Structure to design on (148 residues):
C-alpha cells in the first residue's frame, strides 16, 4: 500500500525573516527549491510541515496558520517526520522531493515558542531537495514513492 497525503497550502517569502504568505500555486525547480522563496538554492531547498503538527499548537491556544512556521508546503494525511531520510515524495503529477533532514536546531526560540513554550518545527518539520521540478498546487495528491 502506498502512503498518501495532500498539499494543504504552499507558502513563500522573498526574504529570510519575512512571514511566508500563501500562494495558489508555485514552481519548484530541480536542485533549487521553490522559485522566488528566500530559502531556495540553500541546503534546505523546501520545507514541509503537516497540518496535524500545526494543530498541536492551536490546541495550546495560539491561532497559527500554514506558513507561520516558515514552511513552504503544508501537508495533510502523512506523518512526515516519521519518514526516513532519503524517502521520496511525489507531489501532483510532476514534482519529486527527497527528504534530506527531519527537524532543525533553532538558534533562538521563535515567537511561537515564547508564546506557548514549545514549537513543532524543530522536531516535526521536514526539509527536502527537489529531484524533479514542476508546478505544485494546494489540493495536489502526495504519494510516498517506493524504494528503488
Amino acid at each position: 500500500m502506498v502512503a498518501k497525503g495532500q498539499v494543504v497550502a504552499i507558502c513563500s517569502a522573498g526574504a529570510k525573516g519575512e512571514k511566508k504568505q500563501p500562494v495558489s500555486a508555485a514552481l519548484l525547480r530541480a536542485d533549487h527549491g521553490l522559485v522566488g522563496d528566500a530559502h531556495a538554492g540553500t541546503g534546505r531547498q523546501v520545507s514541509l510541515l503537516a497540518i496535524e503538527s500545526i494543530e498541536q499548537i492551536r490546541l495550546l491556544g495560539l491561532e497559527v496558520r500554514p506558513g507561520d512556521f516558515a514552511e513552504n508546503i503544508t501537508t495533510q494525511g502523512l506523518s512526515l517526520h516519521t519518514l526516513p531520510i532519503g524517502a521520496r515524495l511525489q507531489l501532483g503529477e510532476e514534482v519529486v522531493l527527497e527528504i534530506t533532514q527531519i527537524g532543525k536546531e533553532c538558534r533562538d526560540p521563535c515567537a511561537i515558542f515564547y508564546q506557548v513554550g514549545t514549537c513543532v518545527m524543530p522536531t516535526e518539520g521536514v526539509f527536502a531537495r527537489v529531484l524533479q521540478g514542476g508546478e505544485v498546487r494546494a489540493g495536489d495528491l502526495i504519494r510516498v514513492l517506493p524504494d528503488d
Notes: The domain at 4-145 is CATH 2.40.33.20 (M1 Pyruvate Kinase; Domain 3). Residues 11 and 23 are 6 Å apart (CA to CA). Helices lie at 51-58, 111-116, 121-124. The mean pLDDT is 85.
